[in-house]
Design a protein that fits this description.
The structure is a homodimer. Chain A is of the alpha/beta class. Helices cover about 30% and strands about 25% of the residues of chain A. Chain A has 11 helices and 17 strands. Chain A has helices at about 15-35, 45-55, 65-75, 90-100, 110-125, 150-160, 180-205, 215-220, 240-245, 280, 350; strands spanning about 10-15, 60-65, 80-85, 105-110, 130-135, 145, 165-170, 210-215, 230, 255-265, 270-275, 300, 305-315, 320-325, 340-345, 355-360, 370. In chain A, strands 2, 3, 4, 5, 6, 7, 8 and 9 form an 8-stranded parallel beta sheet that branches. In chain A, β13 and β14 form a beta hairpin. The interface between A and B is large, with 60 and 60 residues.
Chain lengths: ~375, ~375
């Protein structure tokens, strides 16, 4: 059996025991809320992880790219929600999935999109079910639910050939910048807005089967989710330092790390250089906005044991420079040239995107499997 | 012929006419300095670009990963400098390249690395030529040239089986945070340090054929480079908004851009949403440190014409939110749903890393070729 110590670095390590704990935790949370999960596949982008999610009761997956949709469908997941506003010229690829037997739902938030998607779908000989994204808090995208705009868009979808009205959704992404209390309040604001919108649409005689809410931290902290039909959470599967910094997990819940090798030691500068830099970790510095700034990541021994106080302070394209947050001397005895270390990422999605595959372990340094990712678009 | 307007987005566009101007510019600059170029292949990671660089007089390539080394060698480039401190367990892959006929030089900055690399090379039945990285300014990595450390390391390399002494190098990366005047001064500091080190090593009777200096801005602004045997510049091939912000190029010299599609329009928020987000652009925010903060990138029409004042203000994983820097209304008439736009990147290396290939154009929106990248490690 291959061990982590024999791998070329940098490479991506996934501990499937830690991941399974996270999957079980959120599945239990969803049961507690009484709402099924449609986990966001943009985090793992992987067939085997999807299998674990479905086994834990997921009703399907959410995706952020069509390559994910195609990958998950090939892996046997049939119910797919592409939760990014649909560019009209992507209709043909969704039509091909539907023709092959997938249930794919698209997303819209503007009448021009509905008309263009419908026209393209008719040309492709398909009908695309579309949900409407509601902009509840001005965070990102979606239709503001005012002045009858939602009712009007739902009516347009009903009357446009090539599309069908699937329901409504919102994204509580602002919960990423929240305290636990604020995230709970945000979740309730979204829930009420979705329930209100659902009632007004059905009052028009338009069936609205999907009422979808997303974001891991808001779901974790929500007091209730009744009226919502599915929860789109993604990052909880792997967790990361940003989720830990905002109280959504513990550091020991982080399931992915970047295996790297010490290639430079400079006791005079209290610096260690590793072969994982900006490309290997991503340039995500999200924890800098929190009280737990981890630089580009926290540092563990090859067996996953955290080296307290050690972090990746700076990067260039292929180099990471390790230091201590306190300024105390680095544990140079554990960091000789050639030593392998594991770096926990700020943002698992961004870091994992640089890798074609996961080297899977299960609590030890033995590699038990290699799982491929669906990267790109 | 395919046009950009028919491509699925996000995708990466390379204008080879702009690139050729950049290649010719730096080739002329190198001739002016009287020192040949060994361009850094970590920017393009592509065989066809390497062909253009060699045709313009390059003596070989610099690489930052072994996958680049393997890719460039397969593309016919024989002289390769792997300019990242060599992890001892990467020796076998270099040995395989050498056995196949490549001239690959590795990099070291510590005696422990020399001993481990030598031992592994002997086991593999190969001899790895290694250069020593000098740390001139504490910027990143390398050996401080004091107390005889360089002479001692050169002697160790000479006397260690499995390695051979190839020369010395330094990296003027601090020039990325400099004014033009400071970059010129930095280049001269590095040059003098390298020339001094070269003289002391040769005085010991150790031949030192390679005296290698790198960084595009420092090379552009250097007053002289005599005594240096090769220049390692990379980013100039594509240029980017950060290089423009520090005065190393003009915005119209930027050869790569991300083609994306408008998927949301919100005149009430003065916002346009495109399907290129943090993964498509990278999270590199390097221009924020300059007086020309471009957010996540500047926005052009599909034909490459800059839309003045429009930039990508924020991103999520797959969404980019466009705004104006002045707060003036966005040109919504040019940004309807489905419109294709091109985003110029802050850092071309980081942005290009998300893509498997370039869609190549030559001043128009016609795609004339698809060129593959050597991603990963």
């Amino acid at each position: 059996m291959t061990g982590l110590s024999s791998l070329q670095t940098p490479t991506l390590v996934l501990d499937r025991l830690t991941m399974q704990r996270n999957i079980d935790m959120m599945a239990a949370r969803a049961r507690e809320l009484g709402v099924p999960l449609r986990p966001h596949g943009k985090t793992p982008k992987n067939a085997e992880v999807a299998g674990q999610l479905m086994a834990a009761g997921a009703i399907g997956v959410t995706v952020s790219t069509l390559r994910e949709a195609e990958g998950y469908f090939a892996a046997g997941v049939h119910d797919i929600f592409y939760a990014v506003a649909l560019a009209p010229d992507k209709v043909a690829r969704i039509g091909a999935l539907i023709a092959a037997g997938a249930n794919v739902t698209g997303l819209v938030d503007h009448p021009d999109a509905v008309r263009a998607i419908g026209a393209n779908a008719v040309q492709c000989g398909t009908v695309i079910p579309v949900a409407v994204e509601l902009d509840i808090d001005g965070y990102r995208s979606g239709l503001p639910d005012r002045d009858g705009a939602l009712e009007s868009l739902a009516g347009l979808i009903q009357s446009t050939a090539g599309v069908g009205f699937a329901g409504i959704m919102s994204y509580g992404g602002a919960s990423y910048g929240c305290t636990v209390e604020q995230a709970r309040a945000l979740a309730e604001t979204h829930r009420q807005a979705l329930v209100s919108a659902h009632g007004r649409i059905e009052a028009l005689g338009i069936p609205c089967p999907m009422v979808s809410f997303g974001s891991s931290p808001a779901t974790l902290h929500a007091a209730r989710m009744d009226g919502v039909t599915e929860l789109r959470c993604g990052i909880y599967v792997f967790q990361d330092l940003f989720q830990a910094a905002i109280g959504a997990c513990r550091i020991e819940d982080i399931a992915v790390s970047v295996l790297c090798t010490v290639i430079g030691i400079r006791p005079d500068l209290n610096r260690v250089v590793v072969d994982a830099g900006g490309l290997a970790m991503s340039k995500d510095l999200s924890t800098a906005r929190t009280s737990s700034d981890a630089g580009y990541g926290l540092v563990c021994a090859i067996d996953g044991t955290l080296l307290p106080d050690v972090y990746m302070a700076t990067t260039s394209q292929e180099l990471g420079l390790l230091a201590t947050r306190s300024g105390a001397p680095l544990p140079f005895a554990q960091m000789g040239i050639g030593t392998k270390l594991r770096i926990l990422p700020n943002h698992a999605d961004m870091t994992a995107a640089a890798y074609e595959q996961y080297h899977v372990v299960a609590g030890t340094t033995d590699v038990t499997a290699i799982w491929r990712r669906f990267n790109g678009w």
